[in-house]
Amino acid sequence: MKPINVGLLGIGTVGSGTFTVLRRNQEEISRRAGCAITMTMVADKEVEKARSIVEGLASVTADAFEVVNNRDIDIVVELIGGTTVAKALILEAIANGKHVVTANKALLARHGNEIFAAAQKQDVMVAFEAAVGGGIPIIKLLREGLTANRIEWIAGIINGTSNFILSEMREKGAGFNDALKEAQRLGYAEADPTFDIEGVDAAHKLTIMAAIGFGIPMQFSAAYIEGISKLAREDIRYAEELGYRIKLLGIAKRKPRGIELRVHPTLIPARRLIANVEGVMNAILVKGDAVGQTMYYGAGAGAEPTASAVVADLVDVARMLTADPEHRVPHLAFQPDRLSNVPILPIGEVETAYYLRMRVYDKPGVLADITRILADLGISIDAMVQKEPHEGEDQVDIIMLTHQTVEKHVNAAMARIETLPVVAGKVTRIRLEQLN
After folding, report:
1. What pLDDT does 394 receive?
2. What's the DSSP call for residue 423?
3. Which of 13, 225, 374, 432 is the most exposed place for a label (fewest CB within 10 A)?
4. How many C-alpha atoms does 249 have within 13 Å on its Cβ side?
5. 346 lies in some domain
6. What is the pTM of this model?
7. Contacts of 156 (CB under 8 A, 6+ apart)
8. Neighbours of 246 (CB within 10 A)
9. Nearest to 144 by CA among 313, 368, 280, 25
10. 427 backbone dihedrals φ, ψ, rounded to 5°
């Protein structure tokens, strides 16, 4: 089989890692792929920096369109990010009959349906293992390894920045702002960390996994997204006292009336393996009807862990180049004409358990007033703790854990509880998942 020529768009952290891994493991990779895979062209605005990385082993250009329009390039690797120029480059590469490998989760979550349709029309492949979970091969697992299963749910810690911050808050008793500053100091958080701490990055990844797991189109706009920036250190502490830990989870569940697609802080029993994933590591649970619950753990970011996924995609594409298009693994695991139109459920229809914290005046009858409201809305209490007031204070915290209930009922209960004269301020609500 003739050598495969690769064109790389963007040689930043992941791009340079990809170039390094491809060069270092060239012999092993060619033995697995059945042919040589060579990076022959690189596009990056910082031309001199790119040249110093490739050391004359590839040509360098500042114009990415030169790469996607080069007749000698077989596979285009897009690592520049964003949803504008990257989209134009990928669609141009596809129009030119080139296969594409990308780590761009935002682009796929928002425009994947259009990109996959274009690729199907041109009989080319779009591979995206590196878009979710860094070095964890979760896409291949969902598309191929669990193909015999009806996937019931997926739940994952899929943003290392947020997980590091929550670990700092729990282990050191730090407030959110201090933990964020530490993450930025160590290089785990960007100067503008919004996508990470507000759950957007996790929602991009969850959208992709849900599409593959359930055979539905990409529907990022339908996902419910709530970040960790409003979490208080006392909630981290109270959760720990009750035997739980708080993690930012991406959760996708198949329910009789539709799919739950949600990212938010979540209480998890401390005895669960995933509750003990700390720092910047990622972990993903997948529940299949045949295999049961499985867990995948590893580095969710970084130059070489992500490069591992990019190069694995290059090998997969190289192996499939001679296969008829109809015999290739479909982009979203299911045949394109067999995707389901099952709806994504609004967050008010989600059914789970809840942690509720209320600041109340230390007076007789407070609990009776609150529990009456919960009972009226069919919400039953699983556990409750009333903290002792500090000396000189007339207010205390009440923490309740509910059994499973529908979110709109919890919202109605919170609204009524907050009107009680014995309640000071807003009710804090955090969703709770047993993951069993």
Report:
1. 87
2. B
3. 13
4. 28
5. no
6. 0.95
7. 133, 205, 206, 209, 249, 250, 274, 282, 283, 284, 285
8. 23
9. 313
10. -85, 130
- Cβ–Cβ < 8 Å for 297, 282: yes
Residues in the chain: 436
The residue to which tokens 């919170």 are assigned? 414
The pLDDT, as a whole number, for residue 1 is: 75
Q: Same structural domain for residues 173 and 58?
A: no
Q: Are strands 428-432 and 258-269 parallel, antiparallel or unpaired?
A: parallel
Encode pLDDT of 116-128 as tens digits: 999 999 999 999 9
Same domain as 192, residue 49: no
CA–CA gap between residue 158 and residue 201 (Å, rounded): 8
CATH code, domain carrying 27: 3.40.50.720
Closest CA to 104 of 84, 68, 128: 128
Please give the pLDDT value at position 329.
86
Asked if 285 and 189 sit in the same domain, the reply is: yes
- pLDDT, tens digit, 9 for 90 and up, residues 206-258: 999 999 999 999 999 999 999 999 999 999 999 999 999 999 999 999 999 99
> How many domains, the chain?
3
For residue 401, the domain's CATH number is 3.30.70.260
Whole-Å CA distances, 234 to 11, 246, 353: 43, 12, 20
Distance CA 66, CA 385 (A): 64
**Residue-range definition of the domain harbouring residue 365:** 351-432
Helix (H, G, I), strand (E, B) or coil at 21: helix
The segments of the chain whose pLDDT lies below 50 read none
49 is catalytic: no
CB 86 within 8 Å of CB 17? no
Identify residue 198 by its one-letter amino acid code.
E
Catalytic option among 105, 140, 205, 247: 205
